[in-house]
Write a structure and sequence with these properties.
Shape: elongated
Number of strands: 16
CATH superfamily of the largest domain: GAF domain
CATH topology of the largest domain: Beta-Lactamase
Structural class: alpha+beta
Strand content: 15-25%
Largest sheet: 5 strands, antiparallel
Helix content: 40-55%
């Protein structure tokens, strides 16, 4: 049966070749074939049904198929699926008599790679065929795509709101250039000797735990050496990847800032059809420079924002950030006829702690108080340090003032438990004042004033 099919294809090719030679004889250019064979671009003759009647020798360099293989082939079988409808429309226009000097589409080479082709084609009514010249513009298209990716990454570093959004955009940009469904960004922090994975997308593996630079993982090896690492399936058999199914291809490039390796960009494939090569490595390494710069810039912005909006000692929001969140919460409460509460508190006899044990112990106490406050409220609530030993807590979405009273009681219980600060036992008690919107005011000034007054009243009573 196979022999019959093979013989049929051979006969079909012979018929297409005879048809082609008949056309060439009718054109009265007996020596034309010799010159066509010398062209770098490929000359193609296609019948009205889309079958190749002839391709010049250059077609093998462009498409990967030999002349014999392409003769009689259906052209649309080679066209990239996403470009087939557009190609059919262009063919109809050409057959209608409109020449097409600059039509571009994508073809799938014999090895599965994508080739970008620019066609110059016209229809021969007498011979009922299309005569076209195919120019391979893949390298130009790849260069344009890389340049666009570099610009897009730079733009993302300016426009994204945070690092998580930046990582997602970087993944999307690189995924448009090459197979990158499994994608990871690893960052190394020298003071803590930790390789972390702030962005990790993988079909089969969970996010790895923090790794030491001295570990034997591929990520650590890559960051230690500062050199790209390309591993195939055979090399990965002995690697502790722990993936099911096994990884077929693994490619990582270092992220560098001013010659210093700060992390790595890693892509991996579980499919034999999407393996990485030296070309892929070169492409990923080129864009990695812009990726490293974008991440470094976004990190710098977030560090500056942290310093501007957060208390450096307790890492809690400062006054500026508190007022911003308070105004947003107040607007939501007014819009939804809701309620919110303010808790104003300070630490009784905090000055005595500083005087007796020193300011370092006082700082440790403030940090410990901040952590206990975080344990006492919800994630949607805001705790801010106003300065010294004064803290403010903003509680949103309160259904009844009694809920805030329960939070205040919880805070009091948390802060009256003894603190162990490097072996020094410290016991304190907070004074807490409460104010509710809209019961005690409809603006920040009135609410803070009410809570502050109540706090000092309770402090005086306890004294």
């Amino acid at each position: 049966m196979a022999a019959i099919v093979s013989g049929g294809r051979h006969l079909q090719r012979q018929l297409f070749q005879e048809q082609y030679h008949s056309i060439m004889r009718s054109l009265s250019f007996p020596a034309l074939g010799k010159y066509i064979d010398l062209l770098v671009d490929a000359v193609c003759v296609v019948d009205k049904h889309g079958h190749f009647l002839y391709v010049s020798p250059s077609a093998e360099r462009i498409f990967g198929y030999s002349q014999a293989e392409m003769m009689g082939m259906q052209m649309l079988e080679l066209v990239h699926p996403d470009d087939r409808e557009r190609t059919i429309n262009a063919v109809e226009t050409i057959i209608a008599g409109q020449p097409e000097p600059h039509f571009e589409n994508r073809y799938l080479r014999k090895n599965g790679e994508i080739a970008h082709i620019m066609w110059s084609a016209r229809w021969s009514e007498e011979n009922q065929c299309r005569v076209a010249v195919a120019r391979d513009i893949t390298l130009r298209k790849q260069a344009e795509a890389v340049q666009q990716a570099v610009f897009a990454i730079a733009e993302a570093s300016h426009n994204t709101e945070d690092l998580d959004s930046l990582y997602q955009q970087i993944h999307g940009i690189i995924g448009a250039l090459l197979p990158a469904g499994n994608f990871a960004i690893a960052l190394y922090d020298a003071p803590t000797d930790c390789i972390s994975f702030p962005y990790f997308i993988d079909q089969h593996q969970p996010v790895p735990a923090c790794q030491s630079l001295a570990s034997d993982s591929d990520y650590a090896q890559l960051i230690r050496s500062g050199e790209p690492l390309l591993l195939d399936a055979l090399q990965l058999v002995t690697c502790p990847m722990g993936a099911t199914p096994p990884v077929q291809s693994w490619l990582g490039v270092p992220l560098k800032i001013q010659g210093r390796t700060t992390g790595a960009l890693v892509i991996k494939s579980y499919s034999e059809a999407a393996s990485y090569s030296a070309k892929t490595l070169e492409l990923l390494q080129f864009v990695s420079n812009q990726v490293a710069a974008a991440i470094d810039r976004r990190q710098l912005i977030e560090r500056l924002q942290q310093r501007a909006l957060y208390d450096r000692l307790t890492r809690l929001p400062n006054r500026d950030l508190f007022y911003d969140r308070f105004n947003s919460a107040m607007a939501r409460a007014r819009r939804n006829n809701g309620m919110l509460s303010l808790l104003f508190l300070d630490l009784d006899k905090f000055k005595e702690v500083n005087d007796s044990f020193g300011h370092h112990t006082g700082d440790l106490l403030l940090e410990a108080v901040a952590r206990r406050l975080e344990l006492s409220v919800r994630e949607c609530d805001t705790i801010a340090r106003f300065g010294g030993d004064e803290f403010v807590v903003l509680l949103e979405n309160i259904d009844h003032p009694a809920q805030s009273d329960l939070v205040a009681d919880k805070i009091f219980q948390q802060l009256t438990q003894p603190f162990d600060l490097n072996g020094t036992q410290i016991s304190i008690a907070p004074s807490i004042g409460l104010a509710h919107f809209p019961e005690h005011g409809d603006n920040e000034k009135d609410l803070l004033h009410h809570a502050d007054n109540l706090m000092y009243t309770r402090k005086s009573q306890r004294r």
